[in-house]
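Holo prediction. Input below; ligand is glutathione.
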Amino acid sequence: MMVLHGSAGSPYVARVRMQGYAKGLDLETRPAAPGTPEFLAMNPIGRMPVLEHDGFFLPESLIICEYLEDLHPTPSLLGDTPRERALVRLIPRTLDLYCGGLFPLLRAGVDAGFAVDAAAERAGLTKGLTALEQFLRSDGYAAREGLSLADCVLVPWLYYGRMLAARGDALLTQFPKLTRYAEAMAADPLARRVWGEMDESFRAFMTRWQAEQEAARKA
Ligand SMILES: N[C@@H](CCC(=O)N[C@@H](CS)C(=O)NCC(=O)O)C(=O)O
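Structure of the complex:
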């Protein structure tokens, strides 16, 4: 049995779910509370997702994705040649290492108590997106002709990227290949499914968070 501990709204959880759908895996997602002793016993870093597979607990989304590829090599979401596989891995790594500034920028828009150096985050994100733009394909999927792990990572990231755009921020429109890709994915059934699930989970999270903020203000 395979269980993915985490929330569907997390882009790190959503990438594994998207991979699971693409490969037809039997993967149950179970809501998790990262700060609890039970969760920390699975992952001392306290971040979701954690994959549970027959008593084996594995954290870190990209390691989970690679593990699932090793367990279920077909259909391959990594590609056939060394170059293809390198490019497929390069896009997730670029997003995780250099495009994380998206999240503090979004949070700053809704959380007045959140201190962030917005200019520095924006500069870092712009640099990361400039690299991503160079690595992205000009047509079809992100890194190869067919769907790959690069799409499973980029699509959930774009759920939040599109949120930034919806708030009137034009940053992403400076990148034509990324813009083209986002438009193409908006018509892709798998991407739409993942975005729909993320949306439901994110809205529920925001409702809870706003209620907690309100309660804290009244206390
Ligand atoms: N490098 C980790 C990052 C995971 C991560 O940052 N997860 C966030 C959710 S989006 C988390 O668990 N944060 C702690 C929390 O929600 O309490 C991975 O790829 O799995």
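The mean pLDDT is 97. That is the main takeaway for now.
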